[in-house]
Amino acid sequence: MTPTRKKRLLLILMVALGVSIAVAIFLTAFKENIMFFKSPTEVSAGQYPENRNFRLGGMVKENSMQRIPDTLKVEFIVTDFAQDVTVQFEGILPDLFREGQGVVTIGQMVNKDLFVAEEVLAKHDENYMPPEVADALEKAKTQNAKYEQGGIE
Amino acid sequence: MNRIIKFYHEMGSPPSFYRITSHWLTPLLVLALGLTLYGLIDGLFFAPEDYQQGDSYRIIFVHVPAAWMSMFIYAIVGVAGIMTFVWRMKVAEAVMMASAPIGALFTAVTLLTGMLWGKPMWGTYWDWDARMTSELILLFLYIGVMGIYAAYDEDPRKAARLAALVAIIGLVNLPIIRYSVYWWTSIHQGSSVSLMGGSNGIQDWDMLRPLLVMALATKFYFLYSMLSRAQSYLLKTEQHKQWVSKAIDGQARHKPGVSS
């Protein structure tokens, strides 16, 4: 390699290194802002902005969803399997909203235990499969559960 | 080994690059069109529906290959940018500037198909999560590379070096896009297909097959489109050179019909 080419290569490497470091510092500094949502653990620990909307994300807890009669209101629990937060929402839920599925809700804490959402987004996971496979998996799961229960008895 | 080195040197010289790649265009286009047709029919009609999303998931056969290409092409733009900047290779300039608009197109397709899927599935067309934002920045990077080249019209070779600098700096965005869904919480899901396999994602072969076929089809389309654009780029920037008039004469003599 000729000296000029070496110099250019060095220059470009230095630029790339400098930019990478700058971007890494920027991303670390704004980590909290880049996070799309807060987890129930953070919210339970009081780490949320008061009187201001933020996003709360997690799984809809199994068997936690209930409709409040004669209204469009629903109540469900968002969990990260460590902490739970109760969420109230009035409106139409997205198609993929299901118990045991990921969800991102936008709203605020009205008191220490209740999150009122203005918007609910469903979060899909990366798993795609045909219905028959899903059925088979579900069957295997319940059978396994039965077997394990039988084992305990 | 010697043949590889010889090939590399030949590809680095505009006349032989032009001559060699001319023979590749038709087969590449045939492969691209054939595989796209097969992949789309297989994906839209024969792949089973998804257990949760029903038929809506079928947009994956366009969205995911386009997203892969948006990043793959940017990597090529960046590497060609380094070769342009350090070695001042004309063919690298041609490859860089020929690839950028194709990459921008794939990025736009990724964003649009993602929005169309996002509305019914998530409940929103757009939100500023890390994956979507970094993919949008990728589109701006492509536009930046093309814009700088177009803005500096006094000397195309100097313009290409300036564009290369933007392209190289933008490379830092690629790992951010790739890992955005793991580094930060996001609404976008993680990868459904990984080289290592794993037990998550898409396991069903009838679902996976059209996806992989489309990934291959988009690669061939890119190669076809990039090489023919790079050829035009070289013809234009080298128009006063002798090989250009020879190449054009040769094509004119062979017409009508197949070129050589």
UniProtKB/TrEMBL annotation, chain A:
Subcellular location per the Swiss-Prot or TrEMBL entry: Cell membrane; Membrane
Extracellular side: 30-153
Superkingdom of this protein's organism: Bacteria
Stretches of the chain found on the membrane's Cytoplasmic side: 1-8
Binding site for heme: 124, 128
Alphabetically ordered keywords of this record: Cell membrane, Cytochrome c-type biogenesis, Heme, Iron, Membrane, Metal-binding, Signal-anchor, Transmembrane, Transmembrane helix
Keyword Iron in annotation: yes
Coiled coil regions in record: none
Record InterPro entries: CcmE, CcmE-like_sf, NA-bd_OB-fold
Membrane topology according to the record: Single-pass type II membrane protein
Primary location class: membrane
Job of this protein: Heme chaperone required for the biogenesis of c-type cytochromes. Transiently binds heme delivered by CcmC and transfers the heme to apo-cytochromes in a process facilitated by CcmF and CcmH.
HAMAP family reported in the protein's UniProt record: CcmE (MF_01959)
Family: Belongs to the CcmE/CycJ family.
Entry protein name: Cytochrome c-type biogenesis protein CcmE
Organism annotation: Marinicella sediminis
Automatic annotation (TrEMBL), chain B:
Entry annotated with the keyword Protein biosynthesis: no
Residue ranges constituting the Cytochrome c assembly protein domain according to the UniProt record: 18-187
InterPro entries the UniProt entry points to: Cyt_c_assembly (IPR002541), Cyt_c_biogenesis_CcmC (IPR003557), Cyt_c_biogenesis_CcsA/CcmC (IPR045062)
PANTHER family recorded: CYTOCHROME B_B6 PROTEIN-RELATED, HEME EXPORTER PROTEIN C
Protein's job: Required for the export of heme to the periplasm for the biogenesis of c-type cytochromes.
Lineage of origin: Bacteria, Pseudomonadati, Pseudomonadota, Gammaproteobacteria, Lysobacterales
Membrane-traversing stretches: 21-46, 66-87, 94-116, 136-152, 164-187, 207-227
Annotated compartments: Cell inner membrane; Membrane
Membrane topology: Multi-pass membrane protein
Name listed for the protein in its UniProt record: Heme exporter protein C
Keyword check for Transport: yes
Family, per entry: Belongs to the CcmC/CycZ/HelC family.
Keyword set, alphabetical order: Cell inner membrane, Cell membrane, Cytochrome c-type biogenesis, Membrane, Transmembrane, Transmembrane helix, Transport
Pfam families in UniProt: Cytochrom_C_asm (PF01578)
Gene that produces this protein: ccmC
NCBIfam families found in the cross-reference section: ccmC
